[in-house]
């Protein structure tokens, strides 16, 4: 069979999409340089060559030092319509806005907590699955047995949603990876369910005797600062994410919050996951005092 000329073959092939660099996004609201040093110093040590964005609030200190450590600092002010949201939820609206405006789209995106995360390898050196990648916490705790997850899910999504999720493993919303399109889809779905939001059920009105002392204003409600994790788990376990892969503590991200014992450390000082391999990222190392001291000393 006669082949078409080479120039016609080239013309028939679709152009490869133009992609930007890999992107890491985190929130550093109210932090100072010491809070984020382990995060930024460990990332730099991996040779990461993409873009690392830290969103900073008016109360964030030492942003010039953060920039010197490799962060792209993006200051933000709370939009009036979102002023009642805790920072844990507000960050996703900031991430979404950045991705919507990005031209060209980023190759891959990691959204992550900052103060309690370190890197042991370039996070994009791991062969992440197509679509979205999420992390699972230790298997000994479920959504139904975790008091925080119970509060966040019932307080925002209701008792029926909590009952549907109660037997499931907890997925940590603090570390999520995906291609640009998958992350954009996830953030669209997540932010749509973060509103409307009430920080907690309204407290009872003060008794008449205390009205004059307090001006009749009840105390502010509390306890829902992490409700974004409830919505994240609802999306994951409810089947609302089209293409998603879950990684447990034997995988690339070691999440320590509910682990019963500290992780092993090899002769080179690498923190090992449940499979006995150096984790790509270590999250919630501050939950274990000796490990916290070791990490902070290493990146002092």
Topology overview:
Layout: H1 6-12, E1 23-27, H2 33-45, E2 51-56, H3 63-68, E3 72-75, H4 87-101, E4 108-112, E5 117-119, E6 132-136, H5 147-156, H6 159-165, E7 171-179, H7 180-194, H8 208-214, H9 227-237, E8 244-247, E9 253-255, E10 281-283, H10 289-298
Parallel strand pairs: 1-2, 1-4, 2-3, 6-8, 9-10
Antiparallel strand pairs: 4-7, 5-10, 6-7
Helix pairs in contact: 4-7, 5-6, 5-9, 7-9
Polypeptide structure, described:
Helices cover 34% and strands 16% of the residues. The protein is built from 10 helices and 10 strands. It has helices at residues 6-12, 33-45, 63-68, 87-101, 147-156, 159-165, 180-194, 208-214, 227-237, 289-298, and strands at 23-27, 51-56, 72-75, 108-112, 117-119, 132-136, 171-179, 244-247, 253-255, 281-283. The chain has a 7-stranded mixed beta sheet with strand order 3-2-1-4-7-6-8. Strands 5-10-9 form a 3-stranded mixed beta sheet.
C-alpha termini separation: 68 Å
Helix content: 25-40%
Number of strands: 10
The rounded Rg comes to 22 Å
List low-pLDDT spans.
Answer: 4-13, 209-221
Shape: globular
- Helix count from the secondary structure assignment: 10
Order of helices and strands: HEHEHEHEEEHHEHHHEEEH
The main β sheet shows up as: 7 strands, mixed
Derived structural class: alpha/beta
Q: What is the strand arrangement across the widest sheet?
A: 3-2-1-4-7-6-8
Key descriptive features of the protein:
300 residues, alpha/beta, three-stranded mixed β-sheet, 10 helices, globular
């Amino acid at each position: 069979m006669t082949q078409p000329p080479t120039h016609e073959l080239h013309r028939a092939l679709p152009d490869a999409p133009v992609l930007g660099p890999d992107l890491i996004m985190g929130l550093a609201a109210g932090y100072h340089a010491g809070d984020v040093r382990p995060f930024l110093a460990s990332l730099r040590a991996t040779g990461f060559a993409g873009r690392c964005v830290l969103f900073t609030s008016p109360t964030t200190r030492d942003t010039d030092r953060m920039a010197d450590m490799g962060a792209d600092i993006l200051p933000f002010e709370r939009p009036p319509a979102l002023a009642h949201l805790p920072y844990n939820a507000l960050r996703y609206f900031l991430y979404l806005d950045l991705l919507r405006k990005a031209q060209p789209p980023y190759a891959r995106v990691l959204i992550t907590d900052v103060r309690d995360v370190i890197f042991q390898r370039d996070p994009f050196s791991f062969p992440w699955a197509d679509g979205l990648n999420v992390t699972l916490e230790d298997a000994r705790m479920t959504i139904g047995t975790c008091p925080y997850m119970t509060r966040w899910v019932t307080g925002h999504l209701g008792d029926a949603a909590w009952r549907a999720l109660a037997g499931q493993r907890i997925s940590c919303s603090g570390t999520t990876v995906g291609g640009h399109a998958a992350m954009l889809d996830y953030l669209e779905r997540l932010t749509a369910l973060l509103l409307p939001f009430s920080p907690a059920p309204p407290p009872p009105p003060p008794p008449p005797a205390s009205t004059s002392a307090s001006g009749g204003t009840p105390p502010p409600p509390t306890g829902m600062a992490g409700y974004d994790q409830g919505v994240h788990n609802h999306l994951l376990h409810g089947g609302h994410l089209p293409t998603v892969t879950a990684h447990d503590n034997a995988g690339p991200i070691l999440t320590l919050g509910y682990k019963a014992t500290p992780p092993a450390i090899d002769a080179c000082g690498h923190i090992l996951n449940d499979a006995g391999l150096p984790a790509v990222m270590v999250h919630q190392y501050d939950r274990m005092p000796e490990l916290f001291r070791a990490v902070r000393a290493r990146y002092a």
